[in-house]
Amino acid sequence: MNTIPYYGPDDVKVSLKYEELVSALELALADFSKGPEGGVSQPLRATAEVTQFNGFLAAMPAYVESRHALACKLVTFYPNNSAKNMDTHMASILLFDETSGLPIAIMDGEVITAMRTAAVSAIATKYLAEKKEVLAVLGSGVQARAHIEAFVKLFAIKKIYIWNHRPNGAEHLAKHVSASFGIEVQVFADVESCVMDADVIIAATFTTEPILKECAMKPAVHINSVGAPRPQWQELSEELMNHSVVYVDSVVSATKESGDVIKSGAEIYGEIGQVVLGKIKAESNRRTVFKSLGLALEDAVAARLVFDMMEQKKLT
Ligand SMILES: NC(=O)C1=CN([C@@H]2O[C@H](COP(=O)(O)OP(=O)(O)OC[C@H]3O[C@@H](n4cnc5c(N)ncnc54)[C@H](OP(=O)(O)O)[C@@H]3O)[C@@H](O)[C@H]2O)C=CC1
Ligand SMILES: O=C(O)C1=NCCCC1
Hints:
This is Ketimine reductase mu-crystallin. By secondary structure, this protein is an alpha/beta fold.
């Protein structure tokens, strides 16, 4: 085991570029949505619940033939950790050689989880949002920050509005964003005011009850909801889900894991991979929701990119 190279968070950050990640993930999501002939093997993640401590451990294996990516991520998510000043998500990824099954690298999974989730939301946004100038972000944690970083890099964002259930978090993130990107940032005390003028909304919270409900929004707003990854949890109201065109990363995951989908009974229009393939329409002139649960294939593709980049560096 100690002969396997370990790549830590800094190696991952240096190796992964959002543009490259987006193009690799776009193709892999399309492969996934082709069905069996797409060359993606990915079971539903297995999750062990640690009820006593409100924690979860998920195992996420996947193989993506077109990327030669065979990997398994182990991720814990413990919502109560934020009160202890600890990360709420901790993850490691083990990458294997596809020809022999030999483990070839172990790497940090936290940065990959943040970046690949934001990259996938960016893919959905690219296809489903009519405009991408005003971004409203609900939440101020790891995913909120990664989404802002990705969206500023990939789109011509002009204004960012932030809401968090604890205003301190929103203020802190706003300071970081304005210092890093020099973009106009405003913090809002309520969700409704935050989203009213947005072209694109990101919901990235640990809520278990809907925080984004029917309210005044642009008619063609696009919503990326990355939180509420459990069947009993909701981030979006049932009414909002039922009055939007709903896209998901995986129909299997959404119908088994997403409280937003399960509790609302909303119809799923299709997978984002089907949009990439041109098999279903991108309804960009209507209100769209992209419900993201997070897929193992995304981690496998990202881990393979990191590995290839680090191996390349050794040669130069
Ligand atoms: N779809 C995907 O691929 C992935 C989804 N996720 C999910 O995305 C969500 C955000 O993850 P991440 O940013 O890493 O987590 P963080 O812990 O870094 O951030 C969580 C955010 O949610 C806020 N929050 C906590 N409790 C509530 C509440 N009851 N109501 C409203 N807001 C709340 C926190 O505010 P404060 O800190 O001020 O309490 C913080 O802003 C989680 O649900 C996570 O499981 C994560 C990884 C991948
Ligand atoms: O895709 C992931 O990784 C996760 N998704 C939701 C829960 C935490 C981890």
